[in-house]
C-alpha cells in the first residue's frame, strides 16, 4: 500500500503579477510503505514548496495530496493539523529543539500533546534515545549537546508519535561532512528499523544514493535519478 500519493500538483506564486512564478507543473509522486526516497533539487527548484505541500503546511493550486488513502489537499485545517500530528514526522536542517527542556523532554512533550501517558512517553523517549546512541545524554539540554547529537534528538522527536511518513529537509545539511555521514547513517538505521517511509531532501548525492530511490526536481517536474 502507498503511504503518500501526490497527483498532478500545480503551484504558482504571485499569480497575475509581473513576478509570477510556477514552481510545480504537474508533480506526481508515490511513496510505498517502507520506501525511502531522496529528493534532489537545485536551489530555487521548489523543494521546500513540495515538502510543505506534502507536509500539509501549504496547499497546491490543483492536484491531490493523498496520505494513507485519504485525500487531504482540500480538507479543513483542523483535519490537516490532526493528520500532520498523527501521521507525519518532520526533520529540518536546524534541530528546532526547545532550549529549556532536556533531550528526553523534547521527545516526551509531543507525545503528551498527542494524549500519551507520561510513563509511556518516557519509555518511548528512552528507547528512541538508545537507538541513536544517546542514552547518556538523555538529561542534557540542547545547548549541552554537539550539533550531531542535537540532530539525533530531533530525529527521535520526529518519530515520537510513530508517524507513517518522515519528511526531512536537508537533515544533515548543518553538520560538517564527517558528522553528517555518521548522523545520516543513524537516521537511516532508525528509519529502517521502524519500517518508516521517508522523503528526504538532500544536496549530497552520496547520501541520496544510499536511499531506495532518487528523484530530481527541476523545471517544475520530478524525474528519476
Ligand atoms: P527551494 O526550496 O528548492 O530552494 P522554494 O520552494 O523555496 O525552492 O522556492 C521555489 C521558487 O518559488 C523560488 O523562486 C522562490 O523564490 C519562490 N517562492 C517560494 N515561496 C514563495 C512565496 N511564498 N511567494 C513567492 N515566491 C515564492
Ligand atoms: P501544532 O499545532 O501541532 O504545533 P503546527 O502546524 O504548528 O502544529 O506544526 C506542525 C509541525 O509542522 C511542527 O513540526 C512544526 O515545526 C512544523 N511547521 C509548522 N509550520 C511550519 C512552517 N511554516 N514551515 C515549516 N514547518 C512548519
UniProtKB/TrEMBL annotation:
InterPro entries: AAA+_ATPase, ABC_transporter-like_ATP-bd, ABC_transporter-like_CS, ABC_transpr_LolD-like, MacB-like_ATP-bd, P-loop_NTPase. This is ABC transporter ATP-binding protein. Keywords: ATP-binding, Cell inner membrane, Cell membrane, Membrane, Nucleotide-binding, Transport. SMART domains: AAA. It comes from the Bacteria. GO terms for biological process: lipoprotein localization to outer membrane; protein localization to outer membrane. One of its GO terms (molecular function) is ATP hydrolysis activity. Residues 4-225 form the ABC transporter domain. One of its GO terms (cellular component) is plasma membrane. Belongs to the ABC transporter superfamily. Macrolide exporter (TC 3.A.1.122) family. CDD domains: ABC_MJ0796_LolCDE_FtsE.
Amino acid at each position: 500500500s502507498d503511504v503518500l500519493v501526490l497527483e498532478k500538483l500545480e503551484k504558482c506564486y504571485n499569480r497575475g503579477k509581473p513576478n509570477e512564478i510556477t514552481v510545480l507543473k504537474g508533480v506526481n509522486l508515490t511513496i510505498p510503505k517502507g520506501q525511502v526516497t531522496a529528493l534532489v533539487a537545485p536551489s530555487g527548484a521548489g523543494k521546500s514548496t513540495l515538502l510543505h505541500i506534502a507536509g500539509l503546511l501549504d496547499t497546491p493550486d490543483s492536484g491531490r495530496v493523498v496520505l494513507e488513502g485519504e485525500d487531504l489537499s482540500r480538507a479543513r485545517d483542523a483535519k490537516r493539523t490532526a493528520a500532520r500530528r498523527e501521521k507525519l514526522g518532520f526533520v529540518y536542517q536546524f534541530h528546532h529543539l526547545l532550549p529549556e527542556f532536556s533531550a528526553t523532554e523534547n521527545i516526551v512533550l509531543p507525545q503528551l500533546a498527542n494524549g500519551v501517558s507520561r510513563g509511556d512517553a518516557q519509555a518511548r523517549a528512552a528507547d528512541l534515545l538508545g537507538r541513536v546512541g544517546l542514552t547518556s545524554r538523555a538529561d542534557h539540554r540542547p545547548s549541552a549537546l554537539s550539533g550531531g547529537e542535537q540532530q539525533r534528538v530531533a530525529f527521535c522527536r520526529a518519530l515520537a508519535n510513530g508517524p507513517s511518513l518522515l519528511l526531512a529537509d536537508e537533515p544533515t545539511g548543518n553538520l560538517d561532512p564527517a558528522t553528517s555521514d555518521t548522523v545520516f547513517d543513524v537516521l537511516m538505521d532508525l528509519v529502517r528499523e521502524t519500517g518508516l517511509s521517508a522523503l528526504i531532501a538532500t544536496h549530497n548525492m552520496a547520501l541520496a544514493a544510499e536511499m531506495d530511490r532518487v528523484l530530481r526536481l527541476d523545471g517544475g517536474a520530478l524525474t528519476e535519478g
